[in-house]
Amino acid sequence: MKRVSPGTIVLLLLVVGTAAGQGQSGWRAGVASVPITPKEPIWLAGYGSRERPSGEVLQEIHAKALALEDETGAVTVLVTIDLLGLSRRLSDQIAERAWQEFGLSRDRVGLNFSHTHSGPVAGDVLRPAYPMEREHVRVVRRYTSWVLDEIVKVIGQSVEQLSPARLTFGQGSAGFAVNRRRVRTGKRHLPGPVDHDVPVLAVHGADGELRAVVFGYACHATVLSGYQINGDWPGFAQESLQEKHPGTTALFVTGCGADANPLPRRSVDLARSYGRILAFAVDLVLDGEMAPVGGPLTTAFERVAIPFSKPPSRLELEARVRRETGSRQRHARFLLERIEREGRLPDSYPYPIQVWQFGEDLTLIHLAGEVVVDYSLRLREAHGWDTVWVASYSNEVFAYIPSLRVLKEGGYEGAGAMVGYGQSGPFRAPVEEIIVEKVDELVKRTGAATTSRRTPKETIAQ
Ligand SMILES: [Zn+2]
């Protein structure tokens, strides 16, 4: 064994003391949480089959924020929200207020929705899917305006809480997500890819306490479909982690689970069980060896046009209004109103892609909409299974995002869901290539910028 001189021990203690006092690589972190449970009965999001507003509250739902300041002083905020999703208009409003009130640029605010199907409708996401009366719409408007204020508030609170921190990353696994396309009657022959990984970002304070844990999973939050308000399994997973770790805030980030359901489902017991299973998977990661995550945190946010198939004409839509009933009729009316307002239906959607590069240790890719699992598998294969986290349901939820495979197979995620979303028709085949190319570009750009933003001292230390 090599002899260690007393001088070396003193030096080691100094290094450890500095790391604990200032946070590794100079991180500072702040975390905050606010309840966003509606105060009156309200229409619940996600299913077209519900016939009335919500009943009792089974579980409080929340908006949570994690602010991270890197060694250059740049502040970035991740916001996780127990809602099905918000539209571009509302997401933009939150980002604009985060800029006005806290000086956070668009690329440094990332919203993620748990996609609970037992939370309130907010804004007009999936509006044609719901048979709401005028009085129900009024309640949704009241709730939406309140919840926007709460989301902005929690962002501000997280920034106020900034203090020295240490970041680590690891991944586990959990198995309850099932590719739902192949379990539908007559579709057993389809391939059934899933992403069962459970990415975990742990945030420890200077005192060594676990302050926040951000964790992900790629699956729909659709165990429950009744009238009780709750966060479904992501809500129970967060609750379970916070019970096990008093004083810690657990934030859930949804992965590319657009074509995955938790199966079997439809009981509160199952929703709680999947929540506990996921919390257990996260705990295994926390108890194991996690990799340190350094800075700086370099960010990018861009929109790229993804093309729709040829939209229906006004005449065709008018015929549909006469011919159809229910959501198909509401969809045709919704599109006609859009033509009235804007002159025509759009031929593409300005799709937002956001990339956060944490030093050389972690890449968090935020994809908008309901993204099928192929994107997660492809992007992680391209950029690294151990260091890449692909989030979906980020920033705005406006449609399903099929891969080329799913587009060709058709079905709900490939085409049918556009009705509920009030979009004119399915996307066209280049959609996957357009998104993947833009992600590649932003990953390269943030990677290069991260290297150039490192301070000379650190570069030498490498
Ligand atoms: Zn969905």
Please provide a written account of the structure.
Helix content is 39%, strand content 23%. With 462 residues, it is an alpha+beta fold. It has a domain at 25-293 and 352-399. The strands form 4 sheets. Strands 1, 2, 3, 4, 5, 7, 8, 9 and 11 form a 9-stranded mixed sheet that branches. The protein has a 4-stranded mixed sheet with strand order 12-13-14-16, with helices on one face. A two-stranded antiparallel sheet has the order 6-10. The longest helix has 27 residues, at 134-160. The two termini are 27 Å apart. The structure holds zinc ion. Zinc ion is lined by residues 115, 220, 370. Residues 115, 220, 370 line the site of zinc ion.
What is shown here, in short?
By secondary structure, the protein is an alpha+beta fold. The chain is built from 14 helices and 17 strands. It is 39% helix and 23% strand.
Specify the number of helices.
14
Count every beta strand, where a strand is a DSSP E run of 2 or more residues: 17
Report the helical percentage: 25-40%
User: Which ions, cofactors or small ligands are bound in this entry?
Assistant: zinc ion
Ends apart, CA distance between termini: 27 Å
Describe the oligomeric state of these chains in a short phrase. single chain
Radius of gyration: 23 Å
Rough shape? globular
